[in-house]
Each structure stands twice: as C-alpha cells, then as structure tokens.
Design goal:
With 659 residues, the protein is an alpha/beta fold. A hairpin with a 3-residue loop joins β8 and β9 (146-148). The chain binds 4-O-methyl-beta-D-glucopyranuronic acid (GCW). 4-O-methyl-beta-D-glucopyranuronic acid is lined by residues 136, 149-150, 190-192, 271, 310, 354-355, 382.
C-alpha cells in the first residue's frame, strides 16, 4: 500500500459542510456515498447528519416539501443533473442519484459561499454525456513501455507485475477524486492490448469486476480495451473477420459473460489497425464493419464501443513526400460517416498528429456529422514534459474545445463532441501524478468535460483553493505565476510554430531535432539550409488543408492568413519569412527559446517562497522537478537554437550565445 495524497479533497475542503446540520435523503449506492461523505465531514467539524436545517441533499423523489419550495418548483432532469438553491438559511441540492453526488462536490467547491446570501435555484448538468479517462496501464510489465505506457507517475494503480495490484483502497480514493470532478467512466487497461491484458475479457474478468465494484459507488463505469483479434487469440477461431458468423457468436458469448459479472459494464475500447494492433483491414473489412460488430453485441446490454480514429501508416518511407500522417484519420474515417451503429463512438485525438504542444484541431471533428464523436485529450504529459515539467494544459484544451470548425459564430468542438476522453496521468506515485502540480491537469480535465466554457484560470483557482485550503490566499498568486502560462512557456522552449515532434524517439523526453526526420513514423519538419516546415497546402503540398471546411481551409492554405503559431504545421517557409508579429521565423525561434528558458529560471525563486506554507515533502519534490525542468529547458533552447543557426547561418540579432 502506498500513502494516499488527498489531492483536491483534503478533509479541510469539507469544513463548510461538516460544520452544519445536513439532511441526506434518497436511496441507492450513490446516495449512500453522499451520506458517508457528509457523515465523515460532520464527525470532523462538529456538524450533524440529521435534520437538514442548513443543507438538504436529496433525490427528487425524497425531497421534503419544504425544501422543494426552495427550488421554485423546478422539474427533475436526467440522472446526472442537479439543482441548487438557497432560501431562508437553507441550501437545497436535488437531482438524480448521480446528480446528488455531483451536487455534494459542487457544495464542497463553493465552501462558505454555499451558506451565505440566498440565491435562486440554478440547474447544473454536464455538457458531455461521457467524461472518461483511459488508462494506458498494462497488467504485465511491458519490456519497453513498462507497467504504464507513457506513464510518468510510477506503476499502475490497478495492475502490478502480471496481476491486480490489490490496493482497492487506492482505487476507491481515485474514484472519489474523479467523482468530485464529474468523471463517469474509466478504461482500465492500455489500448495496446498484449497477451495477458487480452484475457481481462475472459478468464481474468474477475479482476475487472473487482475494480467495477469499487468505482460503482462513485458513479463510474468500467470500460475495457480489447484486442480485435480476441476470437483468434482467446477463442481459438481461425479468423476475427467481423462479418463471420462464428466470430460474432464468440463476441456475443464473451460479452454476455462480461455483463453477468459486471451488469453495469460500460463497453469496449478498440485501437485497431494502428501501430501494429490487429483490425478489420486484415479481412478486407472497414472500420465501420469492425466497430459495428462490437456495437451489435454490446447493444442488448446498453454498452458502447469506443473506436479510435488514430489510424495511420507508421511504416511510411520518409523519402515519399506524398504521404501525410496528418491526413490519415480523415482519409480513413470521413468516407464512413453515417455507417457506424448508434452505440459506436468514434474517439478522435484532438489534433491530427499526436498530442503535440501545438496542433490544429483534427479535421475529423467537422467531417463526420452523422457519427457520434468523442474527443480525446492527453492528460499524461507524453509530449509536454512528462510530469517533470510544469505544464498546465487547461488553456490548450479550452482552445481546442472552443474552436469553431465552421468559423466564428458556428458550432464549437465542444458542441460537436458528445464525449470528452483523456489519457490519465495517474499512477501509483504518492502524489498520484508524479509532479504534484500535475494534479491540476486531471482536475481541469474533469471540470472542462463537465463545462467546456469554464475559464482555465478560474479552474486553477478552484484547484488551488481545494488543494491548499489553509493557505490558499497566500499560495494563490505564486501558483498562478508558476502554472497559468506554463503551457505557452513549454511551447516557447520546445518545437517552434506548430512543427511538432523534435523529441528523442522512443521515450519522447527532451530535444532531438532530427530524431524522427528519417524514420517511418511520418513526423517530419523538413528543415534545410533555406527554410523549415511542412507544406500541407492544396496548391503545392499534401492537400491536408482541404480536409477543413471553410473558412479554415482557406485560412490555413494562405501563407498570409495562417496563424503564426501553426505556420510551420501548414507551410514550408524560408528562415527570413516575416511573421505577423513582425519577426522573421529564425529570429522568432531564437527569441522564444531564450525567453522560454528564462521564464523557467524565474520559477524556482517563486516556488522557494512557498517553503513553510506547503507540506515540506511536496515542497521538496516540486523544487527538484523545477531544477530538472530548467536543465531540460536549457538543453532544448541550446539544441534548437544551435541546430537552426547551423542550418541557416543566420546570426541572432541580439548576439546571444548560440553554440
Ligand atoms: O502517442 C502515441 C504513443 C503511444 C500510444 C499511441 C496511441 C498507446 O506514443 O504510446 O499507444 O499514441 O494513442 O495509441
């Protein structure tokens, strides 16, 4: 058992509730959870769980008449919705069972404000119907990827060296943290499904059921990544052809057993025909055929299949300038729009490549109006500092969710997507996320999935208030300084102007400008002595810009209109090309890299000022990580600047040291 850090739910965060007279009314496991939470809070802060003179938390059916009046006769909504209002000194929260649970945590966030002046009843409902975390956790330790693929927070909270980790208390605590930010689904194993992990579907199902049992009281459904080849590797069939009757029967039987063990099982998650995972292409079938096979066997039980759109050729020839990885998802999936079953959800990474610090929004999101979409984010910081660097990602996600694929005034990504999914950054580390400040990313993901309109700065404030309740007012400004702009700082000292990658192949930490340049992965920058960037225009490049509707197809196509921060994603330009900022590309590279590293250097003194305010062990951990971030940022600065200086021969206008 590892020590469990309280993250955004320390006992102190429950003071306002715990010091009051609270009524919890209703039945079922979720309301029981609420009762337990309130009971614990009251035991700690002198309140009582009985008469509801100060606070009523109730399901619609159990709402006492007097309390109902506080809500002004509002009507019941869906299971996850709640209403909150205050009149005559009583605060009332009512909803479906899950709504009561989310309402409780809403009151926790409000703190004393929930018990101040009266306020009219307000409805709260999640924008996204499913708010899901995918764990890339392996059951066996993978020889290259380890226990958690792209995990930077120690081992897995679910699995250890070939079996369940067995620390269900920790899983329970995880469920509690997730419920507090509204997450309602978790996939418990890696989308790359290896031999042992495949068996979670069959003879190791009991391990999954154990996790489901612990997460259920927090309103979280368990999902499983499955291998498309399961009928062959587990069932002994000689084919996994999605149109084969025996294959369908095998999946139907396996799925029946899953629901016998886990009646509220969420469904399957599939990475098919991608980076070596098996899929329908082997049988000449489409991804819709594949997804619909699984959707069909899940449908009778109310389950769903999440089918990933991350499909591209990872064995391409770097000499071949016509293949563009950015195009792949749209090329594969857009023609299938309208062919997916009702309970099949296409899960699309937010950008066309792979979670780089800056990418345009994936064109798939606008291209499939007749398909249910989940947008996938990466909370685990594979390309954004691997939880050794501070990189608060909410501002990036907010931009993605607010992007309007059909231009200003049209629907936003948040309006198109039904679901928000993210790769979790959690592991067996005592702080959950390795870097203690990376907890804020997990927090922000849940909050944005609930309400994509929230302001990242306000989410950060909320997180600070909950995580450091005793000293919030003293740590707020310093933490804002360190975290608020950290995504843009990270962008400044890494790959410039949207070009992406330039990381060390394999582990993806630290700079290696040409690391991927002559590899089969399709991630190139094409820097030469004259210029840099990828020509993705229709006029002279790969034609990728044509995958967007107007106005973006025109904006990105045009060298003049393309936003600076994405310039090298869409265009190959000379080093002397002048940006909208008025600087040349080469000078922009130098300036941002010097600035980024300087910004990081300024963080340590700010953090040092928090000594004595936050827990000493946490203080020490973040201090060490800031030192590593600074070392790494300087390495990035020097490698990028030196590389481009040597390629271009153009000196820095300010004569700074380049090697
Ligand atoms: O980002 C890449 C990662 C792989 C990952 C893959 C995916 C799980 O480098 O480790 O595999 O994406 O999203 O499937």
């Amino acid at each position: 058992m590892t020590e469990i850090h309280s993250a955004w739910l320390p006992p102190e965060a429950f003071r306002a509730i715990g010091s009051r007279r609270v009524l919890v009314a209703g039945e079922g496991p979720l309301v029981e959870t609420v009762r337990e939470e309130v009971g614990r809070a009251c035991a700690g802060f002198g309140g009582s769980l009985a008469d509801g003179a100060d606070l009523v938390l109730a399901t619609w059916e159990s709402l006492p008449d007097g309390a109902r009046k506080v809500l002004d006769g509002a009507e019941p909504g869906g299971d996850e919705e709640f209403l909150i209002g205050r009149r005559g000194g009583v605060t009332v929260v009512a909803g479906g069972p899950a709504g009561v649970l989310y309402g409780l945590f809403h009151v926790v966030r409000m703190g004393e404000r929930a018990f101040g002046a009266d306020f009219a009843a307000e409805p709260h409902r999640p924008a996204m119907r499913r708010r899901m975390l995918d764990h890339w956790d392996n059951v066996d330790v993978h020889p290259v990827m380890g226990q958690v693929e792209r995990g930077y927070a120690g081992g897995s909270i679910f699995w250890e060296e070939g079996g369940p980790r067995g620390d269900l208390e920790r899983v329970r605590a995880y469920g509690r943290l997730l419920a507090a930010v509204g997450v309602n689904a978790v996939a418990v194993n890696n989308v790359n499904v290896h031999a042992t992990e495949a068996r979670l579907l069959t003879d190791r199902l009991g391990d999954v059921a154990d996790l489901a049992g612990v997460l259920r009281p927090y309103g979280i459904k368990v999902h499983l990544s499955v291998t498309f080849a399961a009928p062959v590797v587990l069932g002994g069939l000689d084919t996994a052809d999605p149109l084969d009757e025996d294959v369908r029967a095998w999946w139907a039987e396996a799925t029946h057993r899953v629901y016998e063990a886990i009646p509220d099982f969420g469904g399957y998650l599939v990475k098919a025909d991608s980076e070596g995972q098996p899929g329908p292409f082997a049988y000449g079938r489409t991804h819709a055929d594949g997804a619909n096979l699984l959707a069909g066997v899940l449908a009778p039980y109310g389950g769903v299949v999440h089918w990933r759109a991350f499909v591209y050729d990872h064995r391409q020839d770097w000499r071949d300038r016509s293949t563009d990885r950015a195009r792949a998802a749209c090329d594969h999936f857009a023609p299938l729009d309208g062919q997916f079953a009702e309970n099949a959800i296409l899960q699309v990474k937010h950008g066309p490549m792979d979670f780089q610090v800056r990418e345009p929004v994936s064109p798939v999101i606008a291209a499939m109006p007749r398909t249910r979409l989940a947008v996938e984010l990466q909370v685990t910081q594979e390309y954004t500092g691997q939880q050794r660097h501070v990189c608060y990602l909410a501002p990036m996600w907010r931009e993605v969710l607010g992007f309007e694929p059909w231009g200003p005034g049209g629907r936003s990504v948040a309006g198109v997507a039904e679901e928000l999914v993210a790769v979790s950054n959690v592991g067996a580390d005592p702080y959950w996320t390795g870097h203690p400040l990376a907890q804020a990313n997990l927090y922000a993901f849940g909050r944005l999935a609930w309400d994509p309109g929230l302001d990242p700065g306000e989410i950060l404030d909320e997180w600070i208030g909950l995580t450091f309740p005793d000293v919030a007012e003293r740590v707020r400004e310093p933490l804002r300084t360190i975290m608020d702009g950290s995504w843009e700082t990270y962008e400044r000292y890494t790959a410039p102007l949207g070009v992406g990658f330039m990381v060390r192949p394999g582990h993806h930490y630290g700079p290696d400008v040409d690391g991927y340049e002559y590899t089969p992965w399709g991630t190139y920058h094409f820097a030469d002595r004259d210029g840099v960037g990828v020509d993705r225009t229709r006029a002279t490049g790969t034609g990728y810009t044509g995958q967007y509707p107007e106005p973006w197809s025109e904006v990105y196509e045009s060298l003049e209109r393309c936003p600076d921060e994405l310039l090298l994603f869409f265009h190959h330009v000379p080093y002397g090309h002048v940006l909208k900022s008025g600087k040349t590309v080469i000078q922009h590279i130098y300036d941002t890299h010097f600035a980024g590293a300087e910004e990081v250097a300024a963080l340590r003194p700010v953090w040092d000022g928090l000594a004595g305010l936050v827990d000493p062990a946490l203080h020490a951990r973040v201090g060490e990580l800031l030192d590593e971030q600074l070392r790494s940022a300087r390495e990035w600065r020097d490698q990028i600047n030196t590389y481009f200086f040597r390629k271009s021969g153009v000196p820095d206008a300010h004569g700074r040291r380049i090697h």
